[in-house]
Specification:
The protein is 0% helix and 48% strand. It contains no helices and 11 strands.
Amino acid sequence: QVQLVESGGGLVQTGGSLRLSCVVSGRTFMTYAAGWFRQAPGKEREFVATINWSHSSTYYADSVKDRFAISRDNAKNTVYLQMNNLKPEDTAIYYCAASIAAGLGWTTHGHEYDFWGQGTQVTVSS
C-alpha cells in the first residue's frame, strides 16, 4: 500500500510564504507523477500544480503561476510545494497525490491520481 502524508500547513498573513511537504511511503519503487490539489470550504477540489517523475517538467494552475513552485526529491520520496505571496483566496485544504497512470509525464486530472494524502490546512488571513 502507498501512503502520502502532508505537512507544513498553517496560518499565515497575506503576502507570506509556506512550504508544504508530502512524504510518500510504501511502494516507493514505482514511477509516478506528483500533484497538489486544494479544496476550499463550499468549493470543489481544484488542481494546483503537478510535476513529472524526473522533475524536468511542471505545470501550474493560472491562479498560482509565478507564486507557487512544485519540486520533488525522489531519493527522499518527498514532494514539495513552495507557496509565496499568499492571498486569502489560497485558503484551503491542500492535498498531495501520486499518479502511476501518468507514467513519466504529469496530469492535471484528479481522477488520474491513484493515491492521496489526508490533506493539510492552509489559512491566509487578510
